[in-house]
Each structure stands twice: as C-alpha cells, then as structure tokens.
Amino acid sequence: MVLSISITVILLSLLLLYNNFSKNKNSLYICGSLICMSIIAILHHFSVIEPNVFWIAIISGHSLPFGFLIGPFLYFYTRNALAGKIIHRPTDGLHYISFLIVLISIFPYYFTPFDYKLKLAQMLVAGANNMITKINFSWLYPSYWNILLRPVFLLTYTVFSIYLIFHKLKQKKIPFSFKTSESSLKWLVIINSIFLLISLLYSMLTANFFLRFVQNREEINSSPFSYLVYVLMCSLPILMLVFPEILYDVKKNKRSSKKAELERYENHDELVKKADSMVEFIKKEANLIDPNFGVDSICEALALTKEEVNYCFSVILKTKLATLKKELRVELAKKELQNGMLQSHSMEGIWVKAGFTSKTGFFVAFKEVTGLTPLEYVKLVVEETKPE
C-alpha cells in the first residue's frame, strides 16, 4: 500500500509541476516536498515492510539528503502561498545547509561499486536494528544520525509553517473556519497538519526503534504509529484531487460574491496608481508575446500580491487580464498594419509579432475588438490615407 501510494503521489506531483509551473512557480516547492517524502516512504517500504536488497542498494544511501528538503520546501511553499507571490530572501540559502551537509557526507558513497552497496543492503536486511547503527554511508558522522534527525527537522519546519498561517490570520483578524474560509487557506492548514502528524508519528516510531521498544520489522509494522502514518500517506493523493483549483489551477463552479469583489481596500488610492503601472507593464511587447505571462509575472515585477492584482482588475480596471491582453495585442497588430508592415511581411508575421498563437484566434480577437477583419481594417486605413 505504501509503495503504490508513494508512486501515485510522485506521479500526481509531476503532473502538477508540468501543468502548473508556468502559471504558479510556487508549485515547485510543494511538488518537491511531496516527492522527497514519497522517496523516503518508498525506502521505508523496501527496508521495513517488504525488505528488498536490490532496492535498498538503489535507494538507501542515495536518498538520505532528500529527506532534509521536505521541511524547507514545505516552509517556502506556505510562506509564498500566504504572501500571494514568490518571495526571495538573502537568508533562504541557510535552509539548505542540512541538505548540503548530508550530501557532502554521503557524496563518496555515490561512486562506490554497486556490489559493495548490495553487500551493505544484505547486512541491513539480515540485521535490521542491530546493523543500522554499525553500517555507515557517511564519512563526516555516523549515517544513522540522519534517520534520527530527519523527522525532527520536518517537525520543526512544519510547526513553524503552521505558525505562519495563524500569525497571518491574526494579523488580518480573520477567524479560520472549514466552512467559510477560502479553499487555498483550507488546503494550507490541511497539508501542513498532515505533515505535522506524519513527522510527529515518525519521530515516535524512530525513537521507539533506537530505544529498542520495538525489536524487529514485525513489531514496527504492527505499531499503531505505523498504521497512522500509512493512513496519513493515503490521504495525500486524495487531497491532491480534492483541491484541483489550488494545485492544478482548475476553477470549480462557484458563485461569485459581488459584495466581496467590490469591497474597497484601505489602500485603494495607492492601488489605482498600481493599476496604471500594471497596464503599462502589460503593454510591453515582450510581455504581450510571452505565452507564460500571467498574474504571477505582474506580482513579481510590481511587488504586489495576487489579491491586490485581482482587486485592480475587478474593481479599478473593471476587466480581466485575458481581455486586456487581447485588446492590447490587437492594438499592437493595428499599429503594424497602419505602418504598412503587410507590404513587407505576411499576415502570419503580423499576428505572431502581436502575440497571437493562431490565425483563427487573431482574426476572431481582431473582429471582436475593432468590428472589422484585419483585411477590412487595412482597406480602411488605405482609403483614409489616399490623397484627395
């Protein structure tokens, strides 16, 4: 069960990354966290549930550093999701120190012969709790320290991520409720709570193993801590399907609340100026022709949150980003046609230069905005410029 669930989580994470990374780069962090956790779960399966010498040799030593990325990735994802934009701080690199230390310590192991790795795996399978403290993959410190520290690191990061969520709610004076809170906030609370419980239970399981309260694999597998961890692991792929609008940018059918949409922000006057800056930023030719240009691009460039950008569009500009881009692209195409670019370039060259991806899309958009087809517009321009 753990193996199939872990593989499912990895596949769903890769699907999420493929479909959503261009629109939401923050998805990289939650995908990384879920994939790293699933790799550790797969190692647990082949080491404890169904021991397999070959797969232990493949995964065991090689996967040790990745367990120390689960917590930092979860923290970065939570922080960015709460801010509504990607945040980069000079101190962010410090969160990767534990990963780098483990990677440096394990690095020589990557280049050892596979026969030697198989031999170590056979010793682990034969000796379990007796051998795990004697076999060393690392040259800096005993490698079993990684097994002890990994759940502690994850627990620390998860607790701090949950603190960030409720600190944000306290700042905005917004009560949290599973009935009324936004889906994005529910998702953050649930995913962090699951990671918290997994890290807490795995810490207890690890402590029991090293303190010899559990003596063998059968006792580990029958431990209530193990059962609870397996159940929580099963909930991960279910959650990834329950929250498609958060993970895959798929919108659920919901009634829009005009009252909420038109609620005036305290910094409304400041956002009016920001809205003008947004339009000028979108007008840039490089942005108009960029197929990946979206709300995240605006947030990153103008230091705005998603909520502020959406407020600017809905309340101040009273339009949508897609509509504005279409109109500005048509204006760019009109400018090219007015300058006689059709004489030296094909119509395809003009609609590609204006940022359209197909002839049909260009002609439909042009007709919607101007009431004329591109060719009718050219004829109109020619007639207007004829000398009397």
> Which outline best applies?
elongated
Give the % helix: over 70%
Give me the secondary-structure category: mainly alpha
- Report the count of strand segments: 0
What are the segments in which pLDDT stays under 50 over at least 5 consecutive residues? 249-262
Structure annotation, total helices: 21
Distance between the termini: 83 Å
Radius of gyration: 27 Å
Name the average pLDDT. Answer: 81
- DSSP strand content: under 5%
Q: Provide the succession of SSEs.
A: HHHHHHHHHHHHHHHHHHHHH
Largest sheet: none
Please supply descriptive tags for the structure shown above.
388 residues; mainly alpha; 21 helices
List the helices and strands and how they pair.
Blueprint (H helix, E strand, L loop, with lengths): L1 H19 L6 H23 L3 H7 L10 H14 L13 H10 L7 H18 L12 H29 L10 H28 L6 H6 L1 H19 L1 H4 L10 H4 L6 H16 L1 H4 L6 H8 L3 H12 L3 H18 L2 H4 L2 H7 L5 H12 L3 H12 L3
Helix pairs in contact: 1-2, 1-10, 2-3, 2-4, 3-6, 4-7, 4-8, 7-8, 8-10, 13-16
Give a nutshell description of this structure.
71% of the residues lie in helices and 0% in strands. It has 388 residues and is mainly α.
